[in-house]
Amino acid sequence: MNAPSRFRPRDRAAFSLLELLVALAVLSVLAAFAIPRYAQVLERTKGTECQVTRANVQRAEEVYMGQNEGRMATVRELVEKGYLDRQPRCVAGGSLVWISTAPVKMACSLHDAAPAPAVGNTAAAPGGSAAAPDTYFSSDLSSIEGIDPLTGAWRINGGVLTITSSGKSVNEAIVSTGPFTDYSTGLTATIASGGFGVLYRASVDSGNKVSGYSFQLDSEGKLELWTIVGSKPGERLAAAAMPSGFPVVGVEHTITVDVAGTQSTFYVDGVQVMQVTDDTFSSGTSGMRQWGGTASFDTIVLARS
Questions:
Q1: Is there a domain that residue 123 lies in?
Q2: Is 8 a domain residue?
């Protein structure tokens, strides 16, 4: 009788290195196809959610206008008065802007061919933290951090930055970062009277006097671009009127400037209103200017153009 062999086949309890490499190669090929498709599905989902959000805001605005003799409310008012249950946001980080009042229509800088440049998310972080690598400064103005008040009694009231002027006094505040050359800057505000402006390519001298450009809107719906020298009006470079159908007083508006080289393009609530070429100022930061009454400032953004 033959003795049993001392050599037995080894148990195959583990994969060989070659088998593992083949498996990893197959998984890599599958991932190369699956991950981009998943990303596309995710982006489409975000776009759909943003579209639903904007539709809800539009319906709320239409209901409000129907109950208030056609007066248009700010988004903040829609939330405060219960027409919306929360502040609307684009889940992908886009900026939501009104582009029409008849019919009421809201657009997103990421999910629509909106005419205004995206200067930052309306969900800006409190205190002026940067929202993205291309954002130099962004604040919802629920605090004064990152803003240097130069003239006037700027204060936080109800979660927004407010200022009141009397007589012919002009109040100014500046973003404490910069200077920058080519960029986009946007400012959202509500006025009861007087007017407000967004300063850009602005600098401050040792006496706290501002020089730069001011794109501004007054309570009569007049839009103007001025040079500001030593905090005083210099030359009026251009003028225009608010887009038809847009009320001014008591309604939140966003004014935006996109500056590159000697050319500046201006928008109100996402609608382009004028374009100007001028080389008086070549760099500086952004800021706020107010006169003739009371204004509430909700958001300021300064971003790469």
A1: no
A2: no
Of 53, 73, 108, the domain-final residue: 108
Report the length, in residues, of the chain.
Answer: 305
Q: What angle do CA 247, 170, 227 make, to 5 degrees?
A: 85
Judged by DSSP in three states, 162 sits in strand
Give, for 154, the enclosing helix (H) or strand (E). Answer: none
Q: In the 3-class helix/strand/coil scheme, how is 90-103 assigned residue by residue? A: CCCCCCEEEEEECC
Q: Both tokens of residue 118?
A: 């995206």
| Domain limits for position 65 | 17-108
Q: How far apart are CA 57 and CA 272, in angstroms?
A: 22
Residue ranges of alpha helices (H) inside 110-179 are none
Q: Which helix (H) or strand (E) holds 6?
A: none
Q: Is 152 found in the same domain as 104?
A: no
Asked if residue 163 and residue 293 are part of one domain, the reply reads yes
Asked whether residue 214 is assigned to any structural domain, the reply reads yes
Distance in angstroms (rounded) separating the CA atoms of residues 109 and 126: 21
* Residue-wise pLDDT tens digits, 126-169: 333 333 447 888 888 888 889 999 999 999 988 889 998 877 78
Between CA 71 and CA 43 the distance in angstroms is: 35
Q: In angstroms, how far is CA 113 from the centroid of its own chain?
A: 16
Name residues whose C-beta falls within 8 Å of residue 21's C-beta, 6 or more positions apart in sequence. Answer: none
Give the number of other CB atoms < 10 A from CB of residue 20: 11
CATH code, domain with 201: 2.60.120.560
Does pLDDT of 170 surpass 90?
Answer: yes
